[in-house]
Design brief:
The active site is at residue 517. One of its GO terms (cellular component) is cytosol. GO terms for molecular function: ATP binding; hydrolase activity, hydrolyzing O-glycosyl compounds; metal ion binding; N-acylmannosamine kinase activity; UDP-N-acetylglucosamine 2-epimerase activity. Pfam families: Epimerase_2, ROK. With 722 residues, this protein is an alpha/beta fold. The protein is 39% helix and 19% strand. The chain contains 24 helices and 26 strands. The strands form 5 sheets. Strands 3-2-1-4-5-6-7 form a 7-stranded parallel β-sheet, with helices on both faces. A 6-stranded parallel β-sheet has the order 10-9-8-11-12-13, with helices on one face. Strand 23 and strand 24 (555-556) form a beta hairpin. Helix 1 (19-33) packs across helix 14, helix 16 (442-462) runs parallel beside helix 17 (501-508) and helix 20 (593-605) packs antiparallel against helix 22. The radius of gyration is 35 Å and the shape is elongated. The two termini are 60 Å apart.
Length: 722
């Protein structure tokens, strides 16, 4: 002990209050025990360790072959706020005699429990040096206040993360008395390799349970909002019952509100439910194996946001109890829930995933660092603390509400005229949109797509949008499985046999989906529009061309050669006008924007288009909108053309009704509102009576192509398949 100037062994008192803090203190106690030439160890046990209802967990300390010097019964039963205060008072009454008898040089106190506050208060007032484990962390509820109060009483600090170290410094603690060691429990976690873990799983959950196919639930009351935390626990149990997976439920700790939580468990029959195993305590070594191989852990225990990250097990953290903890990407927060639906949604998102193992809280070498730190303590130094005032480094974590707001997709719409890219949120909001003219050559077009997507992805970071992938809507026949445009429409040149997925995925390092613009419009309606919740419906796009998409039993129909829903090429007349597809009499040859433009030019060339109150500038091409304007102003020939176009479209819809028998037809695109009444008239005149009551509506989506492209990304990247 020459290093610290002490000429005798350092007498260390480790006081443990409950099963949770013992899991952190035990590795240090084992380390101290292995160096008897430097240390003398005294063990004091108090708190819920000594209560039968909480498993009499002092026995695991005895099983670890530690001599318990003192057992202090300090818990006043009642499990309410007053009982917690009385328990602290009882501990303060009993501890001075123990500390006078043991006369430790230093007391090791862990965490943020009310029992630990009594320990730190007693030691500080009796001029005993205090080493506080896990100070500087931020969580929620009264635990934060207790933890920081112990920090102010403690003389030395062992913290687990860089942020915790910075918090301690910002709380005026002397940097020289702070050790960034990592969490002691990680020394055991990162070396825990039990090949016989299945026997542990079967012992606690049953012989028929498989690895990664069960849940571990551990939820404690929140003492600053007991009523709400009990409601959250009730919703959690409802969600777990609905989720229908084998679940190991551990009883809550002894905080105020725990009695009510146990009542909720019994009211719902959890202890007798075939899918649940309710237990008071699991030995830490076995608990490690259970959470390491679980499909998910749920609750509000610090174990979930700290230790479980070492295994990459998915975690759902409920409520505010751990609100400020640093977490790995395996943790999904559900801050608040009015119904079980949000918790159930989180279970579907998390269950069965495997995340990278996180070492935020330790690298497996905490105990050697702590022992070295203990040896360096100079007992000749004065107890008076020094102070400084550095800045605070904030931590950031995941939140399910935050995720639902910011999860976004890059949507690309390749039209005949324009190329558009947009950032689209989970709720279908177009956060930002970029528009350029669509180049005529393949090389220029693909370069512009990449440039616009990179620009949008960069901007998304500034807008706090997390891009999940890229969805592309394009005209023509598309193989969505390979992300290849097989054959394009004549509107987009040099666009056959084009692999869109590979260059975008390689550039952006994101998954990419590609589909036909008609299919995208149908998917947009299914997720964001009037098709939401509809099992069978058809979307018809009335734009430059005529396209569509078919949703059958909630799924999009692509067809055997990806040619389904080419609704614009349904033939409605054997001797109709020529179509761009090479045939004639198609709906597109009558009702598309190109067809109306053709008819408008004919009228204009014959000086039969313009009527009073209407003009066309010389430098402006005549188009479909001029024909519509003329019809509105009373041009009989224009009205006749629109009526013929609408009738052709209506006959196509009748064919669709007779073939697919959908419950809904949605007309989309700029011409939809001009056709809707004519289409309904044709249905009344031509359709079978059994389908005449089918709803035909105009889409209320402003950008179906972009929203449909986005929906491919948002649906695929957030859906869970069981």
């Amino acid at each position: 002990m020459e290093k610290n100037g002490n000429n005798r062994k350092l007498r260390v008192c480790v006081a443990t209050c409950n099963r949770a803090d013992y899991s952190k203190l035990a590795p240090i106690m084992f380390g101290i025990k292995t160096e008897p030439e430097f240390f003398e160890l005294d063990v004091v046990v108090l708190g819920s360790h000594l209560i039968d209802d909480y498993g009499n967990t002092y026995r695991m300390i005895e099983q670890d072959d530690f001599d318990i010097n003192t057992r202090l019964h300090t818990i006043v039963r009642g499990e309410d706020e007053a009982a917690m205060v009385e328990s602290v008072g009882l501990a303060l009454v009993k501890l001075p005699d123990v500390l006078n008898r043991l006369k430790p040089d230093i007391m090791i106190v862990h965490g943020d429990r009310f029992d630990a506050l009594a320990l730190a208060t007693s030691a500080a007032l009796m001029n005993i040096r205090i080493l506080h484990i896990e100070g500087g962390e931020v969580s929620g509820t009264i635990d934060d206040s207790i933890r920081h109060a112990i920090t102010k009483l403690a003389h030395y600090h062992v913290c687990c993360t860089r942020s915790a170290e910075q918090h301690l410094i910002s709380m005026c603690e002397d940097h020289d008395r702070i050790l960034l060691a990592g969490c002691p429990s990680y020394d055991k976690l990162l070396s825990a390799k039990n090949k016989d873990y299945m026997s542990i799983i079967r012992m606690w959950l049953g012989d028929d349970v498989k690895c990664k196919d069960y849940i571990v639930a551990l939820q404690h009351p929140v003492t600053t909002d007991i009523k709400h935390s009990i409601k959250m626990f009730e919703l959690t149990l409802d969600a777990l019952i609905s989720f229908n997976k084998r679940t190991l439920v551990l009883f809550p700790n002894i905080d105020a509100g725990s009695k009510e939580m146990v009542r909720v468990m019994r009211k719902k029959g959890i202890e007798h439910h075939p899918n649940f195993r309710a237990v008071k305590h699991v030995p830490f070594d076995q608990f490690i194996q259970l959470v390491a191989h679980a499909g998910c852990m749920i609750g509000n225990s610090s174990c979930g946001v700290r230790e479980v990250g070492a295994f990459g097990t998915p975690v759902i953290n409920l409520g505010t109890r751990q609100i400020g903890r640093e977490t790995g990407e395996n943790v999904l927060h559900v801050r608040d829930a009015d119904t079980q639906d949000k918790i159930l949604q989180a279970l579907h998102l998390q269950f069965g995933k495997q995340y990278p193992c996180s070492k935020i809280y330790g690298d497996g070498n905490a105990v050697p660092r702590i022992l070295k730190f203990l040896k360096s303590i100079d007992l000749q130094e004065p107890l008076q603390k020094k102070f400084c005032f550095p800045p605070v480094k904030e931590s950031i974590s995941q939140d399910i509400d935050h995720i639902l707001e910011t999860l976004s997709a890059l949507a690309v719409d390749l039209g005949g005229t324009n190329l558009r890219v947009a950032i689209v949120s989970m709720k279908g909001e177009i956060v930002k949109k970029y528009t350029q003219f669509n180049p005529k050559t393949y090389e220029e077009r693909i370069n512009l797509i990449l440039q616009m997507c990179v620009e949008a992805a960069t901007e998304a970071v500034k807008l706090n949008c997390r891009i999940l992938g890229v969805g592309i809507s394009t005209g023509g026949r598309v193989n969505p499985q390979e992300g290849i445009v097989l054959h394009s429409t004549k509107l987009i040149q040099e666009w056959n046999s084009v692999d869109l997925r590979t260059p975008l995925s390689d550039t952006l390092h994101l998954p990419v989906w590609v589909d036909n613009d008609g299919n995208c419009a149908a998917m947009a309606e299914r997720k964001f529009g009037q098709g939401k919740g509809q099992e069978n419906f058809v979307t018809l796009i009335t734009g430059t061309g005529i396209g569509g998409g078919i949703i059958h039993q909630h799924e999009l129909i692509h067809g055997s050669s990806f040619c389904a829903a080419e609704l614009g090429h349904l033939v409605v007349s054997l001797d109709g006008p020529d179509c761009s597809c090479g045939s004639h009499g198609c709906i597109e040859a009558y009702a598309s924007g190109m067809a109306l433009q053709r008819e408008a030019k004919k009228l204009h060339d014959e000086d039969l288009l313009l009527v009073e109150g209407m003009s066309v500038p010389k430098d402006e091409a005549v188009g479909a909108l001029h024909l519509i304007q003329a019809a509105k102003l009373g041009n009989a020939k224009a009205q006749s053309i629109l009526r013929t176009a609408g009738t052709a479209l209506g006959l196509g819809v009748v064919n669709i009704l007779h073939t697919m028998n959908p419950s809904l037809v949605i007309l989309s695109g700029v011409l939809a509102s001009h056709y809707i009444h004519i289409v309904k008239d044709v249905i009344r005149q031509q359709a079978l009576s059994s389908v005449q009551d089918v709803d035909v509506v105009v889409s209320d989506l402003a950008d179906p192509a972009l929203l449909g492209a986005a929906s491919m990304v948002l649906d695929y990247t957030t859906r869970r398949i069981h």
